[in-house]
C-alpha cells in the first residue's frame, strides 16, 4: 500500500488551488473536518487523512510501540507528503496534531509551506514555571479513567473538551468520533498525547505559523497558546471567538473565515 492508501487520503476541490492539509487530533478522524471542507474547497485544494489507528486508515500499520512517540505520526506524514508532491502546502494540525505537524516541518522543511496550529499544547502537564493546565496527578487520573472504560470516558469527557454548554449536538458529535476509535488504540494515543513534551521542537520551526486559540478551552488554555506563539520564531496568535477545544465543530464559519483571511491575502470575502 502507498502512504495515501494507508491513510485513506481524500482530495477535495481543484488540484490547481493552494493545498491545505487537515490533520485531526486525538480520538478523531478526518470526518472531524466535514463542516469546513465544503466552504474551504472554494479556495483551496483540501487534503484530509486518517492518522494511524484512526478512521479508515490501514489497520496493519498500527504499531503500539511506534506510536508511543509523536515522531511516529510525524514520520508517516513526511512519507505521505513526499508521495503527494504538493507545492508549499499549509499543514493544519488540530490539538495534538499541532505538535505533530511541527515535528513534520522540522523533519522535512522543504515539504511544508506554512503551519496552522488549532488549539495547540506542547505539554499538558505543568512543569515549574510552565503552565500546561494540568497536574501530573490529573493527567494520570484522566488516563486511568479512559483505560477503565473508554466508551464511558468518551461520553463524559466530550462535553468538557468541546465546551459550549447547552450545545448537545457539538458534544454528541465529538463523543461519536471518540467512540469510533478502537479502545486499545485510543489508550496508546491518549498516553502519547497527554504525556508528550514538544516544547523543544517549537523554536526549531522555521515556517510561518498561525496559532488559533479558542476561548474557554480547558484542554489548551490561552496561556498555552500564548506560549506556543512566543516560542515559534515566525508565529502569529489569533484569538478566536469560538469556545471549547474543537472550533471546526462549534464554529466552522469562523475557522473558514480566518483561514481565508490569513492564507489568501487580498481575499475580498
Helix content: 40-55%
Order of helices and strands: HEEHEHEHEHHHHEHEHH
Structural class: alpha/beta
Q: Main beta sheet: strand number and arrangement?
A: 7 strands, mixed
- Read across the widest sheet, the strand sequence of neighbours is 1-3-2-4-5-6-7
Flag low-confidence runs: none
- Overall geometry: globular
3D architecture notes:
The chain is an alpha/beta fold and 269 residues long. It is built from eleven helices and seven strands. The chain has a seven-stranded mixed beta sheet with strand order 1-3-2-4-5-6-7, sandwiched between helices. Strand 6, helix 9 and strand 7 form a beta-alpha-beta unit. Helix 3 packs across helix 4 and helix 6 runs antiparallel to helix 7. It is globular, with a radius of gyration of 17 Å. The model has no long low-confidence stretch (mean pLDDT 95).
Amino acid at each position: 500500500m502507498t502512504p495515501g492508501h494507508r491513510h485513506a487520503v481524500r482530495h477535495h476541490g481543484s488540484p490547481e488551488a493552494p493545498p491545505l492539509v487537515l490533520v485531526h487530533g486525538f480520538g478523531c478522524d478526518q470526518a472531524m473536518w466535514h463542516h469546513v471542507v465544503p466552504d474551504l474547497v472554494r479556495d483551496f485544494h483540501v487534503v484530509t487523512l486518517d492518522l494511524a489507528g484512526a478512521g479508515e486508515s490501514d489497520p496493519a500499520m498500527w504499531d503500539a510501540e511506534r506510536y508511543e512517540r509523536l515522531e511516529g505520526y510525524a514520520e508517516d506524514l513526511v512519507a505521505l507528503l513526499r508521495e503527494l508532491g504538493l507545492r508549499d502546502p499549509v499543514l493544519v494540525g488540530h490539538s495534538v496534531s499541532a505538535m505533530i505537524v511541527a515535528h513534520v516541518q522540522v523533519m522535512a522543511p522543504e515539504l511544508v509551506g506554512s503551519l496552522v496550529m488549532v488549539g495547540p499544547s506542547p505539554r499538558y502537564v505543568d512543569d515549574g514555571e510552565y503552565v500546561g493546565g494540568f497536574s501530573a496527578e490529573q493527567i494520570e487520573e484522566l488516563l486511568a479513567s479512559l483505560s477503565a472504560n473508554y466508551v464511558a470516558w468518551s461520553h463524559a469527557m466530550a462535553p468538557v473538551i468541546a465546551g459550549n454548554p447547552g450545545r448537545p449536538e457539538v458534544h454528541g458529535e465529538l463523543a461519536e468520533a471518540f467512540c469510533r476509535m478502537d479502545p486499545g488504540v485510543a489508550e496508546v494515543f491518549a498516553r502519547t498525547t497527554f504525556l508528550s513534551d514538544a516544547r523543544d521542537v517549537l523554536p526549531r520551526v522555521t515556517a510561518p505559523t498561525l496559532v488559533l486559540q479558542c476561548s474557554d478551552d480547558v484542554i489548551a488554555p490561552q496561556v498555552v497558546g500564548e506560549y506556543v506563539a512566543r516560542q515559534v520564531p515566525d508565529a502569529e496568535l489569533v484569538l478566536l471567538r469560538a469556545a471549547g477545544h474543537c472550533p471546526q465543530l462549534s464554529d466552522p464559519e469562523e475557522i473558514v473565515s480566518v483561514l481565508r483571511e490569513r492564507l489568501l491575502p487580498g481575499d475580498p470575502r
